Amino acid sequence: MPRSLDAIDLKILTALQADADLSNKELAARVGLAPSSALARVRRLRADGALGAAHAEVDPRALGVGLQALIAVQLDVHHAKSVAALRDHLLGLPEVVALFHTGGEADFLVHVAVRDAEHLRQLAFDAFAGRAELRRMETNLIFEVQRKAGWPCYADGR
Prior knowledge:
- The chain is of the alpha+beta class and about 160 residues long.
- The protein is about 35% helix and about 20% strand.
- It has 2 domains: about 5-50, Arc Repressor Mutant, subunit A (Orthogonal Bundle); about 60-140, 2-Layer Sandwich (Alpha-Beta Plaits), CATH 3.30.70.920.
- It has helices spanning about 5-20, 25-30, 35-50, 80-90, 115-130, and strands at about 65-75, 95-100, 110-115, 135-140.
- The longest helix is centred in the N-terminal third of the chain and has 14 residues, at about 35-50.
- It is elongated.
């Protein structure tokens, strides 16, 4: 867990969430620091784990993704070993975009990206249905994905 962040750290994180392509000079101007100070802060935020790598937002269709789904997975047994084995298996699949370990009826929600319905069917049979840890799965097609630019900030007391 990152150490406590001050108001300038929070401004830096907010600015970079909105635009990860900001130059150090632009970032420094937005948060009211000298460029060398801004760079030192960004490096510290990365070293502390508060700031991870930047990612490009790519249109899935440009990569041949024609269909996305959320697969709700219910485990047969809830042992740490079974949870870890299924998690590791799922994260190793190229079709898995995100994995959420959840409470409630589903133990995992798995966001998958595939070429088409046939690819989804094959993935369900080959990578999910045959797993010993699996009790039940339910597939929900995703018609649209909308993401916000960043996380809400509660660290500043708001």
